[in-house]
């Protein structure tokens, strides 16, 4: 049965058995891990006090860091209806070797403006006269990047990867 504890004041208290203790105390709330990392609330995303600048998501992607440093010679011109790219120099004069591969890597981005810059930049570089001769040597580096975009779980990334593959095959043959 149940055991009764007698206190010095004469009050009788029933002691909880091990089964009762396990039912009333949640192992998730009592674990030291839960005390350190409580479950986030949906409003925490909007609260600036809960943003961790040293967290995993605070590190920019390789494409984002190249774009921020000015490694991609184009910027977005925001129109009223449609955005477009403004190139610092003509796309035909740009070296395809690092730029086309970086733009292809940017196809896996999920944040604006990186998604737009990578998609439009890739397309505009492939439309340049003589793009076929400049692109063929880069195929061994482009194919794995495009495969990664096609295998991405985000359907928009998959769509950008598929569009880029169609454009690339039209240019290269």
Q: What's a quick, concise take on this entry?
A:
It holds the Pfam family ParcG. With 173 residues, this protein is mainly α.
User: How many beta strands in the DSSP annotation?
Assistant: 4
Assembly form of the protein: single chain
State the end-to-end CA separation. Answer: 83 Å
Q: List the secondary-structure elements in sequence, H or E.
A: EEHHHHEEHHHHH
The Rg value, from CA coordinates, equals: 28 Å
Shape: elongated
The helix fraction, in percent, is 40-55%
Count of helical regions: 9
How large a portion of the residues is in β-strands, by DSSP E? 5-15%
Strand order of the largest sheet: 1-2
User: pLDDT under 50 segments (min length 5)?
Assistant: 21-35
Nearest-integer average pLDDT:
75
**Class from secondary-structure proportions:** mainly alpha
Largest β sheet strand count, sense and barrel closure: 2 strands, antiparallel
Organism: Ceyx cyanopectus
Protein name: PACRL protein
Pfam families: ParcG
Structure description:
Residues 19-28 have a biased composition (Polar residues). The longest helix is centred in the last third of the chain and has 18 residues, at 155-172. Helix 4 packs across helix 5 (96-106) and helix 5 (96-106) crosses helix 6. This protein starts with a strand and ends with a helix. It is elongated and about 95 Å long. The protein is built from 9 helices and 4 strands, in the order E-E-H-H-H-H-E-E-H-H-H-H-H. With 173 residues, it is mostly helical. It has helices at residues 18-24, 27-30, 32-36, 62-68, 96-106, 114-126, 131-135, 139-150, 155-172, and strands at 4-6, 12-14, 74-77, 84-87. A hairpin with a 6-residue loop joins strand 3 (74-77) and strand 4 (84-87).
